[in-house]
Amino acid sequence: MIWLIARSVFTESLRRRVFLVVPIVTVLFIGLYAFAVDRVFATVRREALGGEANSEIFAGATLLGLSMFATLFLGAVLASFLTFSTVRGDAEQGTLQPAIVRPPGRRAWIVGRYLGAAAIGVSYAVALFAACVTVTGAISGWWPDRVIEPALQLAGAIAIIAAISTLGSVFLSATANGTTALMLFGAGLTTGFMEQIGVALNAPTLMTIGRTGALALPFEALYQAALRALTADTTGITGFVVRLGPFGGGRAMTALGYLWIAGFVVAVAVLAIRSFERRDL
Amino acid sequence: MSAFLARDVHKRFRATTALDGVSLEIGDGELFGLLGPNGAGKSTLVKIAVGLTKASSGSIETVGHPAGSADARARVGYLAELFRFPSWLTADEVLRFHQRLASSTGGAGERAELLRLVALDHVADRRVGSMSKGMQQRLGLAQALVNEPKLLILDEPTSALDPEGRHMVRRLLEHLRERGTAVLLNSHLLSEVELVCDRIAILVAGRIVTHGDPKDLAGAGGVEIDTQDGTQRFAGASRDEIPALVARLVAEGARIFGVRETHRTLEEVYLAAVQQERSA
Predict the structure, then answer these.
(1) Radius of gyration over alpha carbons of chain A, in Å?
(2) Cα–Cα distance, B110 to B113 (Å, whole number)
(3) Which residue from A1, A8, A101 is facing B51, i.e. has the nearest CB?
(4) Phi, psi (5° rounding) for residue A219?
(5) Taking the alpha carbons of B73, B79, B83, B84 in that order, is the dihedral positive or negative?
(6) Of A117, A128, A245, B122, which is least surrounded by CB within 10 A?
(7) Side-chain-facing half-sphere of A189: CA atoms under 13 Å
(8) Distance from first CA to last CA of chain B, Å, rounded?
(9) pTM of this structure
(10) Kind of pairing, strands B151-155 and B76-79?
């Protein structure tokens, strides 16, 4: 039954032409990104960084980091769009009631809708990341140190955003929840930037704000970890320079961090299911 | 086993009492009408019966199972007062989706039969988004009948229907009665309820103020006798009392020109019950 409900999200996306609009925007983005990579590397090859730093690694990691920011943003928009009205929004529309009085019930409904939306968002983000890695490598000849690890971390970040948006849909109307989900996404990224600035300037307060933000909104921690994974094996002065940049830095994820994220997702899931089961509609 | 059994159901929304001790029983195959003004608690009772809302106290059983439980959901069909199907699905796809949710084995045959019952068989492949409100309402009825429910709960099923559509619903309800399906019909349309229901209840301010056979409730309203002094009215008198009334008037010297038995309509019963409850 969960599979049937999850598949209905796919049908909905197909029929509402989400899969028509998103590819157009994506192709436009990849085209612009390819143009940017080409221009930046042409410049880098003419005017290399001085000293021992490898300009091509710096340019590649920064550009791919930038593309990951865009990938996370587009994936977050897609995941939020597919989940923002899962409960209250659909109940206000009257589409929820006929379905949840059927035998599978509320739990199967919310889990199925979440899985369907998360699967679409995650697939999209992973595909876009793979496209950006390929474009970067094909044009510049630079490939990230790791590919699978950041792809999985991006996927995890999108799944967390979808979970937060699904939880929000239990309490908030569709418009309020969509707005909240995107604002939380923005807040997460902002704290991440603050932490990177804090590291660059050696400002402990900014670093604390960033780490607290990553704990509260762990999709940001995964995004930071994915950024770090791009140049995980790059050391020396090049590694140092890369980690100073806003899209080439990041922070590696510890085992405790993954444990925290797992706990966070379980807590969000339990809260969403319990709250939905108790809610009068 | 009753199709529907409510025992002392209370529902409070903060300071507002929506249901104040409702007890009600509907037998198998019985067509039961629930009447009441806006805000009386009819939809709240129905929502508790299908598990959309929880009672503050008391209990409801549907087809022998606690309301809202998986066993009850498998045997109850429901048409909400305000509902919408995904606009991107066709009528046939809506029914197929609900067949799967209900684990119905009826397949294409059941879908075709349901669409025929609600006169939508010619638009099975039309998307919901391009259907009129009335067509969507009829599709909602078909959806509620998926997997042959033992109890059908209809919340204002004819609100968006034209007279022909309402007639179709009446025929459908009579067909369900023949099939032994119990129906709880929540409606504002007194004439509709009077025509099809075996029993009715009038709910006002969360309490059932009167219930019974609509014909009995709307029964004798009195007797009117035309005499040389004008029309004399005997409120509450029945047909059996007419000879005695006429004999008495004649004995008193009256000349009788006509005798009529008058009837109360369900509307009069309803308005009297509502006004009495409000004034109390």
Answers:
(1) 20
(2) 5
(3) A101
(4) -65, -30
(5) positive
(6) B122
(7) 19
(8) 36
(9) 0.85
(10) parallel
Which residues of B fall within a CB distance of 8 Å from A102? 73, 98, 101-102
Of the candidates B175, B213, B172, B168, the one whose C-alpha atom is nearest the C-alpha of residue B194 is B213
Residue A200 clears pLDDT 80, i.e. is over it: no
Can you tell me whether residue B4 is helix, strand or coil? strand
Domains of chain B: 4-211 (3.40.50.300), 217-279 (no CATH)
Separation CA A106–CA A170 (nearest Å): 11
The token pair that represents A23 in the structure block: 């590819």
User: How many angstroms separate the CA of residue A102 from the nearest CA in chain B?
Assistant: 6
Contact A174, A84 (CB under 8 A): yes
Write the DSSP string, B222-239.
Answer: EEEEEETTEEEEEET--G
Round to whole Å and give the CA distance between A166 and A117: 9
- B144-187 pLDDT, tens digit per residue, is 999 999 999 999 888 778 888 888 888 888 888 888 899 999 98
Contact A280 B88 (CB under 8 A): no
Nearest CA in chain B to A9: B86
Contacts 24+ apart (CB under 8 A), A16-19: A16/B88, A18/A78, A18/A81, A18/A82
Structure tokens at B107: 């397949």
Which chain B residues contact residue A1 at CB under 8 A? 100-101
Q: What is the pLDDT of residue A247?
A: 61
Contact A44/A55 with Cβ under 8 angstroms?
yes
Residue B177, CA distances (Å) to B51, B116, B136, B180, B235 in order? 24, 18, 23, 5, 35
Q: B171 by DSSP, 3-state: which?
A: helix
Residue A129 tokens read as 């990341």
Instruction: Tell if the CB–CB gap between A12 and B88 is shorter than 8 Å.
Output: yes
Q: Whole-number mean pLDDT of chain B?
A: 89
CB atoms within 10 A of CB B34: 28
Residues in chain B, overall count: 280
Instruction: Convert the pLDDT of each residue in B29-58 to its tens digit.
Output: 899 999 988 888 999 999 999 999 999 999
- Which residue type, as a one-letter code, is found at position B263? H
- Between CA A277 and CA A281 the distance in angstroms is 10
Which position has the token pair 């229901």?
Answer: B197
Residue B62's DSSP bridge partners are: B4, B65
Residues with Cβ < 8 Å from A148, sequence gap 6 or more? none
Q: How many CB atoms lie within 10 A of CB A246?
A: 16
Count, residues in chain A = 281
User: Where does A148-229 show beta strands of DSSP type E?
Assistant: none
- For testing contact with chain B, the best of A102, A275, A280, A281 (most B CBs within 10 A): A102
- Each residue of B97-149: pLDDT tens digit? 999 999 999 899 999 999 999 999 999 999 999 999 989 999 999 999 999 99
CB atoms within 10 A of CB B73: 24
